[in-house]
Amino acid sequence: MGDPPLAYRNYDLLFTPRLIPQLRNLRDEAWAELIDNLSTLPEQHPDVLAFAMMMVDMSDCLSCQRDSYRAQRGCLRCARHTIITAKDDDRQLLERYEEARRRFIVRFQ
After folding, report:
1. Which domain holds residue 34?
2. Fewer CB within 10 Å: C terminus or N terminus of the chain?
3. DSSP code, position 13
């Protein structure tokens, strides 16, 4: 199939854990603490992967295509927009993460 065109080589189509630290200051202090804690863990840690799974779900990454407007803006912009505009309040957003952790543990451990 070959390599994608150069213009598409730097696109992430799914939220990646390396972006987690850049979501720190988007919500309240509890959110910042969560991001700080996750940022100290390796990318393959179950908590980090559960957070990434939550972000993939919330951002609807599975419908993203590399020639779409979302992809062209970049995964970080999309993730930031998702968190900033989430209808959930901060407590609900943290509960959403905890639910993703539970689902991840059931599914993969």
Report:
1. 6-108
2. N
3. S
